[in-house]
Amino acid sequence: MALGRRGSRRIVVDGVGCRWRLRRRPTYSPGLCWAPCIYAVEHADRRSIVLIVTTNQPHASN
C-alpha cells in the first residue's frame, strides 16, 4: 500500500524524508470520539514502507 501524493504532507525526521496523511473527515466512530485518531506515514523514497500510527487523541476536526 502506498499513500497518494495528493493530500499528504512531507516531513523530515532525523534526516529521513517521509510523507504523512490524515483523513480530512473522520469516519463515524472517530467523529464521535469513540475511536482514536489514526494516520499513515510512509518513507519518501521507498513507497512500499508504510507505518500506521494510532494515537489516544480524537481526530483534529472534532
UniProtKB/TrEMBL annotation:
It comes from the Bacteria. This is Uncharacterized protein. It comes from Frankia nepalensis.
